[in-house]
Structures are given as structure tokens and as C-alpha cells.
Design brief:
Blueprint: H1 5-22, E1 39-41, E2 47-50, E3 56-58, E4 64-68, E5 74-79, H2 81-84
Antiparallel strand pairs: 1-3, 2-4, 4-5
């Protein structure tokens, strides 16, 4: 089967439009704000920690997830199901 240049351009155009349609995954998700709630982290690497993790200190709740940094900073994303089930991250 031989394609003439016009057919090839039409096929490539159709494939390009289909590839663009796949990139549309629906509504965008909002990023969660990490709020300062008065917590702090001791001896923690950068990462997310549930409130029950020993690194999270100060104002915390066991079922919330927090972002810790190596300088002792901490902010809260809020409730997380895996933290409530005690299966969440500890860094």
C-alpha cells in the first residue's frame, strides 16, 4: 500500500488531534495548601508525616498529615485517611 503525500498529511493530522485529546484528563485538581498551625518537627528529613509520628511535635492531630523540613519547620495539609488508619507516612 502506497500513501500519497496528501493522505499522509491527513493521517498525521488526525493522529496529532487524537494525541491532544488524550492529554485532556478532565477537571484539574486543586493543590492542597500547607498551613502553619504551630507544629514543629524534630530530627526529621524533608517529607510527609502523620501526626502520630514521633517527629511531629507541638500542635498536631494524629489523623492529619504534615510536611516537615530538616530545619524543624512544619506545616499541615489537614486530615488524611491513611493517617486515621495509622497506615500513613512517617517521612
Amino acid at each position: 500500500m502506497r500513501l500519497n503525500p496528501t493522505s499522509l498529511v491527513l493521517i498525521l493530522g488526525l493522529l496529532g488531534s487524537l494525541a491532544g485529546a488524550e492529554g485532556d484528563s478532565g477537571p484539574e485538581l486543586d493543590t492542597r495548601q500547607c498551613r502553619d498551625v504551630g507544629c514543629r518537627c524534630e530530627g526529621a528529613h524533608q517529607g510527609q508525616y502523620c501526626g502520630y509520628c514521633p517527629h511531629v511535635r507541638g500542635n498536631w492531630q494524629t489523623d492529619w498529615v504534615y510536611e516537615c523540613n530538616p530545619r524543624g519547620g512544619c506545616c499541615a495539609y489537614g486530615p488524611r485517611d491513611s493517617c486515621a488508619r495509622r497506615r500513613g507516612p512517617c517521612g
